[in-house]
Amino acid sequence: RVKMAPTHVLRCCQRGLAWIPVIFIALVVCWSYYAYVVELCIFTIPSIAEKIIYMVFFHLSFVMFVWSYWKTIFTRPANPSKEFCLPKAEKEQYVKEERPESQQEILWRAAANLPLYTRTGAGAIRYCDRCQVIKPDRCHHCSACDMCVLKMDHHCPWVNNCVGFSNYKFFILFLCYSLVYCLFIAATVLQYFIKFWTNELPDTHAKFHVLFLFFVAAMFCISILSLFSYHLWLVGKNRSTIEAFRAPVFRTGSDKNGFSLGFGKNIAQVFGDERKFWDVSNPEFQSLTQSFSYLLSPLSRCGVIRCGVIRCVVIRCGVML
Predict the structure, then answer these.
(1) Catalytic one among 139, 156, 221, 312?
(2) Of the candidates 2, 11, 15, 165, which has an alpha carbon nearest to the alpha carbon of residue 77?
(3) Model pLDDT for residues 204-239, shown as the tens digit of each residue
(4) Transmembrane ranges (predicted)?
């Protein structure tokens, strides 16, 4: 117990420090709201009509940006269900075994009736010793969250959460709406930035906020645009960031396009079949995912599985992959 206390304290400190990037973003967003609404629209823009138009569109983009950011942060990552845990007797036997060959035999028996079609690089069953669970396809262990996450993409420090199956759509929407938010600010602030820069407008307390607001918005535009473009490419290929760097290994070997079903179906697997709900959270899509299945590409199906369906049960959100 004495040895566990420092470890527990260290873990609490790490969890607290992990919120610093989120708090930083929240402070920047709050300042941007004040700078745009108060310093620009109220104190700087002379036209009433221009103020109203700017305020309406600004708040629309602001609300969608904050909503998607909130959902990305607080949507719990989806984890493998108990179906992928070793039975008690086999778990004890696995722990007692010292030879990797014997441990793999235990895992192969336990995974005989599980829908597993990916392997390790050596062709073995993917097993997490930390979580003591057989990893479903596209599942990886996140050391930051200390859990196995279904269809894990990456752990993002800016949202202090793992981006995976349960919140990947929200993450893409967050990138989209944050880009729209920054572009709108940069575009509407530009003319007043030039006027302050050339001293066409008198020096007031709003000058610093307007000048700095444009620089910050432009800087975030560039960084977010590159990240957003990359993830749109991943969605079109039906890959995660992990799979883009390390192709999944099937029974027939590695295949970077193993989960690709074509551009349209790849997008539908992230955003849903109803296009009218692509820009928001779709309750119907969330419920439909209870019987949702990942399909293998035609090339990966050859010699792998006849029906071509990969199913992974998810706890809490009751999702079937």
Answers:
(1) 156
(2) 165
(3) 889 999 999 999 999 999 999 999 999 999 999 999
(4) 16-36, 52-70, 170-194, 206-230
